[in-house]
Amino acid sequence: MSLSADPGGAEAAWPAGIARVVLDEVDSTMAEAARRAPGLAGPTWIMARRQSAARGRRGRAWMTPEGNFAATLVLRPAGDAAAAARQSFVAALALADVLTALAPGAEVALKWPNDVLIAGRKVSGILLESAGTGRGLDHLAIGIGVNLAHAPPPGALDPGALPAIALAELTGAALPPEAFLDRLAPALARWQAVCAAQGFAPIRAAWLARAAGLGETVTARTGRETLTGRFEGLDETGALVLATPEGTRAIPAADIHLPAPRGPAVR
To answer: Residue 243 in 3-state DSSP?
Structure first.
């Protein structure tokens, strides 16, 4: 399979063997995924037009006004927990394909470990949750939120967070969430097929080709320390490789702070 994946156009067929559930309102699609996972017969997208208690990484609140995209793909992964965690990079590539197709000329970039940016502003976030341990994962939930119609105002963001942007600011019209899912599901299925057939190496290479801050000085905040250094790349596990004054570090989990965005939203 070519790594030049189709950019998620509307003409792409819904992937075979994947179900979908569309709800008017739910507390969060991740919570709904956990409730439904034991009874699902196969991979299933769960999308909600409204969420009342959405959350992002590390329990942060995620604003989901009506018109934005909120969905979770529930899988039963064949690999171990480490392999399942790398599905975040697969999902990011699918999102980048779809957003690039919908907003031609937009500068779409991927921020480690789980965000998608346009012109340095956050447009989408990815959250992974799993049940089970080691090689016995019961299910993996890939939660995805996209600012289709609305972006949170600066006052609603955490201190130091990147500013946000909505896709509608670039296109002039808000794409319905169901239409976005019609594009995202085939794009994600294509990248998952690449990963299944060829492993993580081509995913890593494609992700790095779109990486935000690659080669620049960034700050990584883990639960125990703050590190500043040059973002050198990813290792074979997906950990961020940071060149610091004390030596090169592979960081498996952290909040990354990039330089402030520069330039207009569309180049």
So the answer is: strand
